[in-house]
Structures are given as structure tokens and as C-alpha cells.
Amino acid sequence: MTRDEFNAFCASLPATNHVVQWGSSDVWKVGPKLFAVGGWADGADAFTFKVSDIAWEILPDMPGLRPAPYLASRGMKWIQHYKPPGLSDAELEAHIRASYDMVAAKLTKKMRLELGI
């Protein structure tokens, strides 16, 4: 997945917003909450997303994936896809969508209603 494809996929999810921060990272949020980050790792595209407890146990052992720098070091279950082989585009999209769903579910009912989700 390219950075443009990552941004297009994240933009296709309901009620998302995009900001560029932390240098030149593409930061995607649902409401005010982060669900995905696109940036570079050693000059290559890298994509960071929140994961479930089960995915947290499995994904860090896969080549091309690691606990996300900064976020995972603070006890959060976030993974970074940082080099091949990593995940297929379809798998990466599924994990980003799951991250979106987990984050959106934690928003208040009022916020979800305001966002139409």
C-alpha cells in the first residue's frame, strides 16, 4: 500500500478528519481520536494502527510489523507496518478499519450521534 492509497482508504471511512503533524505524518482521526498514522520509517512508508488484544499477541511476530514506536512504549496496543513483507493491502485495510471501529466505539454516544456514526 502506498501512502496515497492509505490516505484514500482512511478518507473513505465515515466522519474522519486528517491533519499533518509530527513532522510530515498523515494523522487520521474519527472525531477527536486517533485511529491511524501514515509516515516514514527509515525512508519507507509506514502505517500505524490500534489493534485488539488478540492481534497484539500475533502481529509483532510477523516480518515487517512491530509494536508502534512511541505508542506501544506507553502501554498502548498499536502496531506499525514498516517494511515488506508485512501485511497484504487487504489485510492492512482490515486492520485499519478495525482500528477505526475500536476508536469510534469509545466515543461518547453524543459524539457518535453528532458525527453520524
Report on this model:
Keywords: DNA-binding. GO terms for molecular function: DNA binding. This is Putative DNA-binding protein (MmcQ/YjbR family). With 117 residues, this protein is of the alpha+beta class. The chain has a single domain (3-109), classed as Aspartate Aminotransferase, domain 1 (Alpha-Beta Complex). The chain is built from 4 helices and 6 strands. The chain is globular and about 40 Å long.
From the structure above, extract its key features:
globular; alpha+beta; Aspartate Aminotransferase, domain 1; 117 residues; six-stranded antiparallel beta sheet
Strand and helix layout:
Layout (H helix, E strand, L loop, with lengths): L2 H10 L3 E6 L3 E6 L2 E9 L2 E7 L2 H6 L6 E3 L10 E4 L7 H18 L2 H7 L2
Antiparallel strand pairs: 1-2, 2-3, 3-4, 4-6, 5-6
